[in-house]
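Today's session is about reading a structure prediction critically. Students often jump straight to the picture, but the first step is always the sequence itself: look for stretches that repeat, for charged clusters, for runs of hydrophobic residues. Only then move on to the predicted structure, which in these notes is written as discrete structure tokens rather than atom positions. Here is the chain we will use throughout the hour.
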Amino acid sequence: MSQGNEQGAMRLERDSLGEYPVPAEAWYGIQTARALDNFPISGRGPDPDFVRAHVMVKRAAAVANREAGWLEPRLAEAILGACDRILAGELMEQFVVDRFQAGAGTSHNMNSNEVIANLANVALGGRRGEYRPVHPNDHVNMGQSTNDTIPTAIRLACLAKLPRLLEALEGMAAALEAIARREARTAKSGRTHLQDAVPTTIGREFGAYAWTLRRMARRLEALREPLGEIGLGGSAAGTGLNTAPGYKERAAAELARLTGEPIRPAGDLAAQMQSMADLQRLSSALRDTALEVGRIANDIRLLASGPRTGLAEIRLPPVQPGSSIMPGKVNPVMFEMLNMVCHQVVGQDAAVAAMTAAGQLELNVMMPALGSALFDAMDWLTAGIRAATRKGLAELEVDRDRCRHYLHASVGLATLLNTAIGYAAAAEVAKESERTGRPVRELVAEKGLMSPEAFDALVEQAACEGTIPRQGAGERS
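Below is the predicted structure for this chain, in token form.
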């Protein structure tokens, strides 16, 4: 039935609550239309990876039910064809329910069921909104529940996003490592407590950043295995109610084929609906990664501070004017952006933690928002790292003269005298250097401890190799 109104042609559909208008050209149906009216909250529709993941679940269920003899082959083929159209990129605009919606994601589950059913029915010669011969609940949702399809789809969506994040981390690590190799012998003053410390190199500093990012990537990669343990087949409350024999194994095998991931049924299907611990573990790893990435971004901003009154040991490529009032000012905008992203990821983790703890009895109804927070954290971190690498690290330059100047002005060089004259005597040299402003190099020569040339060689060896001879350079008086 169609009717006209100021919003355009509508059709009337009926559910257990009565009739409700649905846009005539919509592929979704009445329960999605109700959700659109009920939840005008964030203005953000579902994550695209999540949409595809949920459709994969519907496809896998249809395969499993067909193989079990529960779903008529003709209907199964129509459902599979509808799913394949969506997975190929069609009709993504038909998934419209807000990210903040009915608990556990019932609204999104029905959005998928209705779109797939309508596509299948039209393919079989039927009409949108009439749900014959394919029904959203009886056929598309056969053997399923929101309880098991939504957490499974969240896991699959995270698995889809993970390779992109890992690629971004490796891209940044590779860029940092390239700088480290290029500047392997660029000696500079180390700093601890933001005070002068022993000599080091740009290479060592940036090489450590690269190593850290790769360590975080390995920790994230290790989560693929637990994320592949799904509760699909648990139906409502993990009971397996209304599922065909062998359904959970067949559905998991089909999802493994579709995704290329290690998908398998969980050992306890009820637990996978009660507990979001695996997703919290992923969120925690994202937070930890953001903390490290943000720390590195802070360091880069500090090393680039200046250009005259800061450290200015590195120069970042100028990508935009830095001030609306100060002419010529250029700011480290890519790493400022990256810091903002990292702070927001930490906030998303706090939300995930709260929602993980909010599960009650047989179900965690916070799953739609919990999944959204995870998806945002992964996408933002991926995009932020990629952008900062491309526009912040690719053309980074090191001011070697500036590094050398700070190195030889550092009172931390007195540490190199420890093995030659002892800690107490070296401390006196350091204090004199700090009091007078004279370089340690001059003072050791004046005191006859070693020649300027020998001291320079000692500094170079300490900075680049991390070692010094036990008795200094042999010129102690």
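Discussion point for the tutorial: Residues 410-465 form a domain with the Ribonucleotide Reductase Protein R1; domain 1 fold (CATH 1.10.40).
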